Amino acid sequence: MSLSIGIVGLPNVGKSTLFQAITKKQVDRSNYPFCTIDPNIGVVAVPDERVDKLVELTNSAKKIYTTIEFVDIAGLIKGASQGEGLGNKFLANIREVNMIVYILRCFKNEKIVNTESEINPLENKEILEAEMALKDLATVEKRIKDLSKESKAGDKKVIKELEVLKKAQDFLQKGQILANQNWEESEEQILNNYQLLTLKPRLYLLNGQENEVPADVVEKFKENNWPFLILDVLAEFDAAGLSSEERKEFDLPEELKIDALIKESYKLLDLITFLTTGADETRAWTLEKGKTAPQAGGVIHSDFEDNFIKAEIINWQELIEANGFAKSREKGLIRTEGRDYVVQDGDVIEIKI
């Protein structure tokens, strides 16, 4: 499955710098609002030590990591939902992403133009979410208008859909985020058809050094269980492409925090990674948490789900420690699982069809 993450924020908060640090793709980082007009899109491999170690173990000819598509969107400003700045063009670009990273400025660099009167990450968060809610409200209200006419025929499905959309309308009119509300599974299925922005999982990235992020801001995020990361985007950008030794030499962080951003994204989206390995290739695959062995087979190839018989499974660490499949079999570490087996993160799987 492909995974797509939108990077959003007010102008000049570090979106394009983060994008470049992640993808190492050259984009315009000029110091003025709206330097990004069309979305920059980059597909990046997710570093995974499990893949590296399994390649060494099985002498695979190829190694393939899972990938994430990052979409860097132009700066959003207050009034975008009514067409201010780049308006609806911005909002349309993030309809199809799986989740959204909101970058909030905490860094105090006077050389970087601030389009707001002060550095206030909580206020910036409110602006971004209000614009998202207003755009969703416009989408919902348009559909309610159409369904109100259709519902007169008495179609139960139409009536149910109208009921759910009116419930969403009520939340959005109060400026509330749909993802924060309690929805029944049937209601979520209806809402998911509309790719609503405030229904998407989100991660707040506080852009600055640890000492630049006010303690009360951190406390507010923790109190409300808002998922967040503190990350100095410029330091990450400067360190990207350097070895850990070089980073140490230049007094830069030895380990990049961008990996933490990727891991947190997987966690928020309830995703896990399973692996396949052999002489031809070692590969990491993305799967929704709670899915079964046949469904994992379907990620590899549709025939594997349709014609599934059984799966042979071992945890990647056990396979490494046993020094390969042959010795793992001798020790009875490889399990045979059927259709009901729920795949775990780090499982090495061989599907039998």
Q: Tell me the number of strands.
A: 12
Query: How much is the radius of gyration in Å?
Result: 23 Å
- How helical, in percent, are the residues? 25-40%
Overall SS class: alpha/beta
- What are the secondary-structure elements, in order, as H or E? EHEHEEHEHHHEHEHHHEEHHEHHEE
Gap from first CA to last CA: 21 Å
Task: Walk across the major sheet and give the strand order.
Answer: 2-4-1-5-6-7
What can be said about the biggest beta sheet?
A: 6 strands, mixed
Q: Indicate the overall shape.
A: flat
Number of helices: 14
Low confidence ranges:
25-37
Measured by DSSP, the beta-strand proportion falls in 15-25%
Mean pLDDT: 84
Describe this structure in words.
This protein is an alpha/beta fold. Helices cover 40% and strands 19% of the residues. The protein contains 14 helices and twelve strands. The strands form three sheets. A six-stranded mixed sheet has the order 2-4-1-5-6-7, with helices on both faces. A three-stranded mixed sheet has the order 3-9-8, sandwiched between helices. The longest helix is centred in the middle third of the chain and has 30 residues. It is flat, with a radius of gyration of 23 Å. The relative contact order is 0.14. About 4% of the residues have low confidence.
